[in-house]
Specification:
The chain has helices at 18-32, 53-63, 80-94, 105-117, 137-162, 166-172, and strands spanning 3-6, 39-42, 71-74, 98-103, 121-126. The protein is globular, with a radius of gyration of 16 Å. The chain has 173 residues and is an alpha/beta fold. α4 runs parallel beside α5 (137-162) and α5 runs antiparallel to α6. It has a 5-stranded parallel sheet with strand order 3-2-1-4-5, sandwiched between helices. The chain folds into 2 domains: 3-131, HUPs (Rossmann fold), CATH 3.40.50.620; 133-173, no CATH class.
Length: 173
């Protein structure tokens, strides 16, 4: 792959959460195993943070020993679709195309649906270290949220096509 894309997660006290750290650690492991020569960490300013998810992720990756030249950031996006859209444009500018999407298992299903809709060439790799225990209340809450968001995305695409809105479609495909 040309790059690993570690999808961001909202910061707490301007620091990566356990789930975000698990994603970053998984990206570090894949990078060390030479699955891709660079890591793109994505995520803008969300919540009450005073820095972007990407900036916090970059700092974490550098602290884990990843060379600065191997870490790129996408720090403008506020949600997953924007992350993927912006990274797609950045890769095109650099003449790159293949990605390994890195996130937690519940988030990867939605990220994959969005990436597929954007025409990205990708495979997924799940960071399972901080995933909620399957069947637990937190798992069900996250699974329900992700299922709703996947459904909402597909409804949005279908609606945009049904009304023939190129403007709406350009935002999601």
């Amino acid at each position: 792959a040309d790059a690993l894309l570690v999808l961001g997660r909202e910061l707490v006290d301007d620091q990566p959460t356990e789930v975000f750290r698990a994603r970053l650690d998984h990206g570090v492991a894949l990078h060390r195993e030479r699955w891709a020569p660079r890591i793109v960490v994505s995520g803008g300013m969300t919540g009450t943070a005073r820095r972007s998810e990407a900036a916090a992720g970059r700092e974490y990756l550098l602290g884990a020993g990843v060379p600065a030249a191997d870490v790129w950031t996408e720090d403008a996006a506020r949600f997953t679709l924007e992350n993927l859209y912006n990274v797609r444009e950045h890769l095109r500018e650099k003449g790159l195309s293949t990605l390994i999407l890195v996130s937690d298992p519940l988030h990867l299903a939605r990220a994959a649906a969005l990436a597929r809709g954007l025409g990205l060439d990708f495979v997924c790799s799940a960071a399972t270290a901080a995933a909620p225990r399957r069947g637990s209340l937190s798992w069900w809450l996250r699974a329900g949220r992700e299922a709703f968001l996947i459904h909402w995305y597909h409804v949005g695409v279908a609606y945009s096509r049904a009304i023939g809105s190129e403007k709406l479609l350009s935002r999601v495909t």
